[in-house]
Amino acid sequence: MKLSGEAKLLRIFIGESDRWKGRPLYEAIVLEAKARGLAGATVFKGFMGFGAHSRIHTAKILQLSEDLPVMIEIVDSAEKIEAFLPVLDEMVQEGLLTLEKVEVIRYQARKGE
Length: 113
Prior knowledge:
globular; four-stranded antiparallel beta sheet; alpha+beta; two-stranded antiparallel sheet
């Protein structure tokens, strides 16, 4: 797959305990992105955060949270990202989605992979 120049960065902010059809939502989103041929996705787990309900979620030892913040980043062409948004609209019941323009400098796999 070739990806260069202007693209879109989609960020999806959800909770670690969010689920979709019996599996973690972050996992379901990444697998769906792969199935739809998007260039790639990365999941980040946060140590602390809050969202629309203003509840603090933290990974402090004495105050372990079962719902830490999770962010998924997906970069691809505007067309592919726009086509993926209706899927996310169904999957993400609670969270935040952001979209911004980015410039892809390099997107390359090692030869033979």
